[in-house]
Each structure stands twice: as C-alpha cells, then as structure tokens.
C-alpha cells in the first residue's frame, strides 16, 4: 500500500484530540451565556460526529490494513485511492478545527484560558452584560457558520469513505454480497442527497473528495458485465409480490434433471413499468449473475445491433449470431432482458440464446408472447399498480415529506385511482405537484381540464394531418400528465424553460437512446471551427494572380453567401443557433435546459454512458402531440437533421481528422437513421395533404436546397465510416451533383465532394470512376493552385493509389514520388500526409517485388504515423498492415513479427469499425495469409471463409475485395496440396474477375499465377500454358510490358513449354 500509514493514524489522533478540547470549551460557553445554546449544541454535535468517525476510521485502518494482505482485498488499487482520499480529508478537517479553536480561544480571552488550565470542568461565567452580548454575536458570526458548514461537508465525506472501506474489504465474501449490494445502493443515494449541498458549497476539496468517492462507488461491480436498458429509479416502489415470486421461480427453485432455460414474460400496457421492473430485479439480484445484458427488440435492426454489442463485449465477431453464440457458451449464469418485443414480424424465438445457464426476461405489449415463459406461471400481466403502492410512488415523485398525514394519503389515493395506478402517469403527476403546477388537493380538477383539452385538441386536429394517438383512456391519461408538465414548463416563461421546450421538440426526432450533450456542443462549435480553418487556408489562387478562375471562385462564394443570407439562420433551437464565436458556446445554457427536462423526467440521464434517453411513450407523445401539426413536425425534424449534420466535422483543412472525431461520427448512425425515417414519413404526409388540395393549387415537385445537400453530404461520411458504402455512395452522388451544378466543378465545396465520392468508388471496387473524378480535381488544383500546393500534392497521392488499383503501376509510381517529394519539402517528412504518401509509394514498390525498399519506407511511415496520429488511427493501421504483409513476403523470422502486427490491426479494426467493415474484412484476409505461412491452415481457412461470407453479402460476389479473399483462399488450399479444391476456387475467381471492374487492374494476375502453379502440380501442363499466355496478354493490356512480372511470366512460359 502506497499511502503512508502514519498520515492516517496521526490524522485520526489529531482530530480526536482537538475535538475533545473544543467540546470542553463549547460545553462551558453553552451553560454560561443565554441565547447561544442552540448554535453551540449544533456545533458540538458536528465535532462529536467527526471525532466518532475518526475513531472508527482508525479502528478500520488497524484491522483492514495492518491485519490484511492486499491479496484479500477485492481491488487493491481502489483501496489505495480511498485511503489517500481519507488522508487528504483528515488533513483538511484538522485545519478547519484548528481555525475554530483559534476563534474560541480569542472569544474566551487569555484570562479565561488561564483560569481553565487547572480545572477541566470549569464553567466560564461573566459579570458584564455587554460581554455576554458580544459573545453571542461572536458565536453567531458568519465565520463560525462557515466553519460549521465546512465541518458538515467533511463529516459526510468521511462517513461515506468509512462505509466504502468496509465494502471494498468485504467484497470477496460471497455470503455478504446481498448486504453489500444494499450498502452500495445506499451510498449512491447518499451521494445524490449531497449534491444540492455541494452545489452551494465553496469547498472545492469536499466536492473533489465526494466526486472521488462517487467514482469509486460507480466502479464497484459484482458482475463481469452489467448493462441495463435504463437506470433504476430512486423512487421505485411496488411490485414486491411479483418480484418475490420471480425470485422464487428464477433463483430459489431447486434445479431439476434436464432443466430447460428459465424465461419469464412481462406483458401489459405501455407505461405500466415493465422495463423498470426488470431493471430493478436485475439490480437487486445482480450478485447471482456473472453477466447482465439487454437487447432492444423494438425492431430487427436494433435487435441485431444490440446483440452485436454483446458479441463485442465477449471479444467475438460483431454480429447477432456471434452475440447469441457467446451467451450460449458461457459456463456461468447470465441474465438477458429482451426489451420492447413488439414487432409481430420479428420472431421472438430467433432472439433466445440456447443455454440452460441463461435467464431471460421479456417485456412486451403483446400477450401472445407469454407462451415463451418456461417457469412458474410463465408471465405477469402488468396493468395498474396496487393502490397503496401507487399512492406511495406518487408521493415520492412529488417529494412530499414523510410522515404523510391522512389527508395527503387520501389525496394521493384519489389521484392514483384517476390515473389507473399506471406508474408512468403517476411519476409525471408527482413531478407536476413537485413543480407546483398544482397541489395534491386540487390535482383532480386541474387534471380533468388538461385531459379534456387533450381530447378536444385531438378531435380538432383530425383530418388531413394523419392519425395521432389512440383514444384509449389509459393513453389519454398518460398523455394528459405529460401535457401538464409541458404546459407548466411553457408557462414558466424563462429562457431556460423556452430552451428546454425547443430541445424537447428536437429530441423527438433523434433516436430515443444515447442522446449526448456533446452532439449539441459540437453542433455549435463545428461551424465556427470550419470557418476558422477556411480563413486560415492560403489564398486559392497562387498561380496566375488575378485570373478568370480566381474570379469565378469568388463569384461562386458570393452566390453561396447571398443564398444563405436570403434564407435566414439555420433551423435549430435558439440555444444552439445564436453563437458568434468559440468563447460564446452557451454550454451553461444548454446544460440548464437539459436540467429542466431531466428534472421533469421528460429525459432521463444514463450515468453508464453519460447520455440521456427518453421513454418510448414520451418519445411518441412529443412527436405526435395533437398540437404538433405536420408542418411543425417538419420544422423540428429539420432542426434535428441540421443539428446532427452540424455536429459532423468534415475532415478537411486540418480539422475533423482525429480518432475522437471519427468515433463520434460513427456514434451518430442511430440518430441519422431515425431522423431520415421521420423525414420520409413527414414528407409522405405533406404530399398526401397537398394532393387532397390539388384542385386549388398544383402539387409542387420535391426539390433539394443547399442545406439539405450539405446535410446528406455529412451524413454520407457517417455511413461510409460505418461501412455502408452503398448508402454513402448514393448520398454523396446526390450532394455532388447538386453543388457541382450550383457552384461549378472548380469550387472547393465541389472538389471536396468529388474527392469523397471517389474514395467511396475505390472501396466499392470502381477505380475507373474514381480516377475520372480525381483526375478532374487534380487538373483544377494544378490550374488554380499550382503543383506545389498541399491540395494538389494530396490529389496526386490519391490518384496514384487509384492508378495502382487500376494496375497502372508506372503512373502510380510517378504520382507517389512527386507527391512525397513535394510534401517533404513543403510540409516536412513527419507531416501525416507526407507519411501517408510514403506508405502509398511503398505499396507500388511491393508490386515490383522490391521488398527491402518497401520495408524501409513502410518502417519509417509506420513509426511516424504512430507518433503523429497515434497507434489506433486508421491511417496508422493501414501502414502497419502493409508492413506486416511485406514481413510476410520477406519470410524467415519476420513472419512472426508480421503475424503479431496483423493480430493487433485486426483487433483494433474490429473495435473501431465493427466486424463487417471492408477494412476489417481485409485485415482478416491478411491475418489468414500470415497464419497460412506459419502452417496454421485451419485457422487461416476459418478466417477467410468467415470474411468471405460477409463480403459476398455486403459487397457482392464480383467486388474486388471478395475476389481478393477468394484468391488467397485458393492459395491456402494450394499450400495444403488440396489441388482440386484450389483449382475450382481459382478458376471461378478468374471468371468473376472478367465480369468485374477489377478485370483490368492486375489483380487477376495473382489468381492466374496461383492457378499456373496448381495446374503444374497436377501435371496439367497444357492448361498451365494457356493460363500463362492469358496472364502475359493481360499484363500487356494494362501497360506492364516493362514490369518485372513480365520477365517472370515469360520465363515461366518457357519452362512450361520445356516440360511439355
């Protein structure tokens, strides 16, 4: 243990000693001077509490640290951090007690101190009334009050730490785990109760200390994995009979021979507390499970996604099947919550991992799903709560102080009956009372008015606006309680409440989960960063001075500017819109608005990932309130799309290219998918409404403006980084066509979009289309910027890579050399773009079999990129992957190094990009190559077959990546002398190459060379000669007459003829 034991022991001794002296002083004053008794007793109580806690801390330290080995501690690191925190708090507390002692001595006077030296029980008396008055003033002074407030903070901190010490040192005891869970839960509640006090306190050290304790509490885990769809509410109550029955059936029942998996279904009304019940059960009995997970079964896409996340935790492939298989393979008990299983087209049996060690809870509104229950009654039907539990929940949500009197209980009981004892409605009703929208006693009349207003508004809004909510009493009651809170927020009339309502409207068109504050902050900050980067960029024309091209660009810029000005500011909430510089980000205002919504439970904070989520019923209610006309829906849906788009920083001009930016963008996919679906639904409704009025006015054609084009361009980047290249290409093409038509092909925005689309074409195996776009952009750069400009050199490097993909090695070599030379001179050899150009040049050398030169360049490039971009940046991983492959080609001991590098690259790609991303599939193929060279043929085959399954599905059978993988599968089979299988694979692969865009890029040559070897090993010499002649002809077609491979093929052809 690193913490100095003496500092703990000495600190507790000092506190006990000074506390005892102070209590003696205060006791004498209390009985001598009238009017100070209450103040002195309160101060004396705090000092005694600190003394008692200090003694307990010393006892714990003596017992736990002196008598226990670190091996017996659940987590020595946490124990050390806690003791360090205690030591710091003891020192701070001692300083404040010494401050108090000085004040007490000053008040008493030197003479009184001398009189008390010989008599500990001396009672100080005074004869002058004026002195008494002064004494009372002193003990009611602001300084004394502040010290007392500080001591309260230290007392709470030490008390929390003392309790947590016991938890950490007992956590390994399974017999005590039930009690420990309760203690940790209680500690979390105490920290929550302390937050208002800490917010108003000036004590930075106390705030930091409590924050440290809270972090330790949050980090304690009794499970390997513990993930819930939502946190357990601090005011949760009720359903105890059901919980006890479920525990009996799930956990207490004796195992029977050949027992089956334990499953239980919770079905019933939306808002009846089904998910909260499951979360509470999981939390209360978490110590019984090695792992707790959940799956969002609201749609097939969400179910697949959440199962993939489970697979990721298990270290397997990122797909649904892998997640289910991993759960099935666990040899310890696990709990899975399948939440919101509503979709009738999604068979529930496809989401049930097979394992007798598994426990599954299912929440649904569909009573037909109760057949999936396997223990006890198999299911619970949730409607309203028990009346007593319902009234208790309401009063807790309303913050009513206990004990509750009979009138309060009666009012709560009445409200509960009105709301059908539905938990969701009760919580919102309680929030309305807490926020003083009404009282418990006049709630009924207020609720009836609100309910009737909801019904009337719904009727008046029917017609062309499309279906809104159902007419059931239950739904209307729930919506009425939310309407009360909403109207209360609107009528507050403050800036915070107005911002909160605007954010709420916008969140209705985000996905309801993972709503992060940094989305809002980035949406404000990114446009300013991009503007700043544009202002810092060098002048666009450095070639011909004031030229026609320069003038055209300036006119295009002016047109864009005027177009934006004429349309006004972007459609966004005010708090995200009215920001002029980076120093005015409105962070406090954004957080204040989020706090308003969170206080009403309209959004709920999820501490596990620092985000907010919205209950499904609330999410629907916000979006489809009767007052929310289709036109208003369109406005807030556009606000959501604008905010998401502006939060995406395009990688250009030195911004947006960090790993953090890329990770953030990938996390937006859920929201982008949702907002685009909402846009489609709203547009369909608008079109329907317009058609119903076409006899008055013709239906206008759907068009796209610059903001929509900009949004889809940014969204396309997210789809590309998430591996959905087809959707990325579709969006990029639309954006490119719009801006090129508006601004011309030469404008910077048009160039950026053409480059982005060309990258996507490359990944999709369409290098010819990519090269056309890149050549056009390079020509513009050369004309307007000159051959030494950064953008020009970057385009040379990019086009060189595409030319290599086309098999035009000579041109690729020239472009890469020019790019590297230019960047090294203008940017420096350690600039990331120069290092990437070095990597690309090395790849061309490898095509000429110059492996030592390749290794030299790749070693320098890889090391430089690790230093400049970091070890997990995508460009760093590309360089390391290429280095691993050249190690594999060089052979010998380097192959082991190559294998290790490829293992690392694959792990990082899976973690960052997911298992199905094209770059991850490429890493799987390359790892298989290294394994085959090491003789691990079984593992190599498994990797290749797994990757090819995904590649065929996502990329297509004739995509160059799929064919590349099949080529190397043929190589692995050939190495095992499985000539017949290898021949079939290679012949079929070459045929598919001829049908693909990769037919002229040189890739078929590798497959052909392998097929020549395969034929020769089988003594099929005529067939080998025919393939060799085709390979020579193909190499000439792509301009490879002078390539080193031509000589190798011609020599091989002579050898085959000689054999024949």
What's the overall geometry? Answer: globular
Structural class: mainly alpha
Read across the widest sheet, the strand sequence of neighbours is: 1-3-4-5-2-6
Percent of residues in helices comes to 55-70%
Radius of gyration: 36 Å
Task: Write a concise keyword list for the protein shown above.
single chain, 1060 residues, mainly alpha, Rossmann fold, six-stranded parallel β-sheet, two-stranded antiparallel sheet, 42 helices, 4% strand, TPR-like_helical_dom_sf, coiled coil, NLR-like, P-loop_NTPase
Tell me what the structure shows:
This protein is mostly helical. It folds into 6 domains: 5-219, no CATH class; 225-382, Rossmann fold (3-Layer(aba) Sandwich); 387-455 and 470-492, no CATH class; 736-827, Serine Threonine Protein Phosphatase 5, Tetratricopeptide repeat (Alpha Horseshoe), CATH 1.25.40.10; 841-938, Serine Threonine Protein Phosphatase 5, Tetratricopeptide repeat; 956-1060, Serine Threonine Protein Phosphatase 5, Tetratricopeptide repeat (Alpha Horseshoe). It is 68% helix and 4% strand. Strands 1-3-4-5-2-6 form a 6-stranded parallel sheet. A two-stranded antiparallel sheet has the order 7-8. A hairpin with a 4-residue loop joins strand 7 and strand 8 (611-613). Helix 10 (300-313) packs across helix 11, helix 12 runs parallel beside helix 14 (423-434) and helix 35 (894-913) packs antiparallel against helix 36.
């Amino acid at each position: 243990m690193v913490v100095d034991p003496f500092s703990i022991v000495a600190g507790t001794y000092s506190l006990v000693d000074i506390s005892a002296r102070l209590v003696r002083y205060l006791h004498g004053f209390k009985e001598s001077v009238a009017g100070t008794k209450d103040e002195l007793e309160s101060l004396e109580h705090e000092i005694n509490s600190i003394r008692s806690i200090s003694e307990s801390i010393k006892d714990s330290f003596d017992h736990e640290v002196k008598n226990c080995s670190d091996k017996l501690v659940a987590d020595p690191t946490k124990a050390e951090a806690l003791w360090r925190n205690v030591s710091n708090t003891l020192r701070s507390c001692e300083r404040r007690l010494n401050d108090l002692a000085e004040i007490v001595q000053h008040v008493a006077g030197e003479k009184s101190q001398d009189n008390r030296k010989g008599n500990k029980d001396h009672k100080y008396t005074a004869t002058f009334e004026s002195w008494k008055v002064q004494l009372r003033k002193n003990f009611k002074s602001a300084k004394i009050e502040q010290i007392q407030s500080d001591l309260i903070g230290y007392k709470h901190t030490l008390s929390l730490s003392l309790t947590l010490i016991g938890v950490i040192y007992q956590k390994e005891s399974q017999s005590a785990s039930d009690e420990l869970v309760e203690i940790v839960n209680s500690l979390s509640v105490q920290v929550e109760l302390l937050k208002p006090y800490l917010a108003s306190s000036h004590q930075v050290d106390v705030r930091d200390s409590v924050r440290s304790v809270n972090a330790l509490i949050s980090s304690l885990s009794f499970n390997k994995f513990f993930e819930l769809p939502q946190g357990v509410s601090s005011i949760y109550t009720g359903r105890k009979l059901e919980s006890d029955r479920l525990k009996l059936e799930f956990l207490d029942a004796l195992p029977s021979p050949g027992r089956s998996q334990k499953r239980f279904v919770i079905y019933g009304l939306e808002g009846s507390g089904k998910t909260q019940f499951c979360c509470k059960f999981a939390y209360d009995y978490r110590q019984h499970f090695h792992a707790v997970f959940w799956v969002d079964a609201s749609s097939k896409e969400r179910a697949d996604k959440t199962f993939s996340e489970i697979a990721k935790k298990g270290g397997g492939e990122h797909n649904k099947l892998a997640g289910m298989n991993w759960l099935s393979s666990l040899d310890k008990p696990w709990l899975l919550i399948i939440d919101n299983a509503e979709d009738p087209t999604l068979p529930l049996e496809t989401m049930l991992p097979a394992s007798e060690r598994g426990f599954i809870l299912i929440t649904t509104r569909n009573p037909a799903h109760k057949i999936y229950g396997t223990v006890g009654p198999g299911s619970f039907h949730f409607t309203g709560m028990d009346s007593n539990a319902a009234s208790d929940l309401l009063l807790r949500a309303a913050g009513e102080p206990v004990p509750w009197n009979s009138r309060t209980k009666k009012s709560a009981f009445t409200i509960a009956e009105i709301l059908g004892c539905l938990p969701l409605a009760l919580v919102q009703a309680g929030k309305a009372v807490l926020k003083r929208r009404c009282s418990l006693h006049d709630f009924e009349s207020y609720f009836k008015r609100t309910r009737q207003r909801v019904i009337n508004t719904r009727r008046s809004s029917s017609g062309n606006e499309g279906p809104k909510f159902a007419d059931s009493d239950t739904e209307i009651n729930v919506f009425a309680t939310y309407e009360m809170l909403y109207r209360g927020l609107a009528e507050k009339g403050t800036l915070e409440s107005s911002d909160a309502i605007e954010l709420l409207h916008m969140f209705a068109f985000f996905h309801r989960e993972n709503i992060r504050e940094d989305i809002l902050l980035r949406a404000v900050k990114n446009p300013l960063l991009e503007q700043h980067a544009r202002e810092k960029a060098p002048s666009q024309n450095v070639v011909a001075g004031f030229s026609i091209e320069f003038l055209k660009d300036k006119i295009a810029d002016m047109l864009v500017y005027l177009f934006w000005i004429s349309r006004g500011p972007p459609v966004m909430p005010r708090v995200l819109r009215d920001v002029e510089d980076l120093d005015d980000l409105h962070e406090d205002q954004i957080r204040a608005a989020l706090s308003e919504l969170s206080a009403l439970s309209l959004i709920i904070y999820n501490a596990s990932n620092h985000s907010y989520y919205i209950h499904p019923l609330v999410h629907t209610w916000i979006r489809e309130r009767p007052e929310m006309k289709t036109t208003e829906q369109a406005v807030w849906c556009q606000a959501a799309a604008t905010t998401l788009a502006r939060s995406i920083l395009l990688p250009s001009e030195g911004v947006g290219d960090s790993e953090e930016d890329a990770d953030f963008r990938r996390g937006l996919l859920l929201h982008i998918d949702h907002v685009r679906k909402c846009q489609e639904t709203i547009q369909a409704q608008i079109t329907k409404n317009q058609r119903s009025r076409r006899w008055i006015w013709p239906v206008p054609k759907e068009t796209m403006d610059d903001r929509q084009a900009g949004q889809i361009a940014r969204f396309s980047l997210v789809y590309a980084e998430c591996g959905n290249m087809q959707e990325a290409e579709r969006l990029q093409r639309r954006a490119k066509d719009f801006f090129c038509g508006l601004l011309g092909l030469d404008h910077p925005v048009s160039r950026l979009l053409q480059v982005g689309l060309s990258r996507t074409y490359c990944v999709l195996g369409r290098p010819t289309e990519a090269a056309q776009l890149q050549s056009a952009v390079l020509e513009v750069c050369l004309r307007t910027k000159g051959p030494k400009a950064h953008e020009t050199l970057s385009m040379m490097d990019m086009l060189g890579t595409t030319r290599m993909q086309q098999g035009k090695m000579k041109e690729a070599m020239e472009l890469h050399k020019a790019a590297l030379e230019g960047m090294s001179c203008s940017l420096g050899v350690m600039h990331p773009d120069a290092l990437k150009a070095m990597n690309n040049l090395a790849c061309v050398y490898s095509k000429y079999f110059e492996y030592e030169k390749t290794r030299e360049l790749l070693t320098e490039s890889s090391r430089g990129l690790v230093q400049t971009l970091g070890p997990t940046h995508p460009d760093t991983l590309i360089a390391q992957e290429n280095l691993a492959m050249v190690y594999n080609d060089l052979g010998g001991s380097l192959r082991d190094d190559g294998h290790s590098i490829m293992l690392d690259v694959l792990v990082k790609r899976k973690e960052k990009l997911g298992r199905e991303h094209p770059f991850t599939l490429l890493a799987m193929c390359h790892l298989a190559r290294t394994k085959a060279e090491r003789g691990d043929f079984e593992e190599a085959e498994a990797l290749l077959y797994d990757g090819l399954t995904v590649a065929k599905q996502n990329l297509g059978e004739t995509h160059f990546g799929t064919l590349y993988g099949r080529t190397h599968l043929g190589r692995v089979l050939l190495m095992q002398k499985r000539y017949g299988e290898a021949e079939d694979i290679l012949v079929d692969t070459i045929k598919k190459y001829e049908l693909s865009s990769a037919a002229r890029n040189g890739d078929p040559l590798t497959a052909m060379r392998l097929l020549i070897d395969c034929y020769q090993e089988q003594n099929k010499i005529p067939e080998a000669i025919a393939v060799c002649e085709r390979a020579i002809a193909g190499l000439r077609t792509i301009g490879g007459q002078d390539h080193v491979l031509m000589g190798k093929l011609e020599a091989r052809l002579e050898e085959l003829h000689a054999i024949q």
